[in-house]
Amino acid sequence: MLKLRYTENLIEAGCDEAGRGCLAGPVFAAAVILPDSFKNELLNDSKKLSEKKRLILRDIIIKNAIDWTVGTVNNIEIDKINILNASIEAMHRALDKLTIKPEFILVDGNKFKPYKKISHQTIIKGDGIFASIAAASILAKTFRDDFMQKIDKEFAEYLWFKNKGYATKEHKKAVIDFGLTKYHRKSFCKFYYQYKIDF
């Protein structure tokens, strides 16, 4: 069972992102405030769960969370500000949309920028330690997967329904064969430009 709290009595929001290492698509982030009564033995880092379990847990989180939101930063913005800044910005955008103002923010990883003078703590591998961060990781991952499956219908050659925009062998080959789409992160696809130069 993951830990429910970092502080004793503050309203805590857990934050995490998904899609940081992808060649295409936005980075998604979620912010989740869970009640102190929340318990679920399945809840864990989204990367350690099957797609089926993530979707089951998403419904449970949405139904039981005190508040939850999702924020995104698209591929054009990612190219402008870099993926680290984009990931943090996506978290800030998720926090912006919360109806309930958190008093403390828990963030997966080791990088974050202060948000509205609210105290925060970064936790390396926090999505496997704290329930609110794990919940955020699941929402960010599943909503991003939904988005990638949707845009797969526009550009079926890239197999986004399967790889979700990550740099699989098939995805990289599709970039070489068909070029970049409006969803690709140009700063992540330098191999494409190298290929064009070489040939």
Structural class of the secondary structure composition? alpha/beta
Q: Please bin the fraction of helical residues.
A: 40-55%
- Overall pLDDT confidence: 96
Largest sheet, in brief, is: 5 strands, mixed
What letter string, H or E per element, gives the SSE order?
Answer: EEHEHHEEHHHH
Strand content: 15-25%
CATH superfamily: Ribonuclease H-like superfamily/Ribonuclease H
Quantity of strands, as a count: 5
Number of helices: 7
The figure for the number of domains is 1
Stated plainly, the CATH topology is called Nucleotidyltransferase, domain 5
What's the N-to-C terminus distance? 54 Å
CATH class annotation: Alpha Beta
- Going by CATH, the architecture would be 2-Layer Sandwich
Notable characteristics:
five-stranded mixed sheet; single chain; 199 residues; globular; alpha/beta; Nucleotidyltransferase, domain 5
Short description:
This protein is an alpha/beta fold and 199 residues long.
Molecular structure report:
- With 199 residues, the chain is an alpha/beta fold.
- It has a single domain (12-152), classed as Ribonuclease H-like superfamily/Ribonuclease H (Nucleotidyltransferase, domain 5, 2-Layer Sandwich).
- It is built from seven helices and five strands.
- A five-stranded mixed β-sheet has the order 3-2-1-4-5, with helices on both faces.
- It is globular.
- The model has no long low-confidence stretch (mean pLDDT 96).
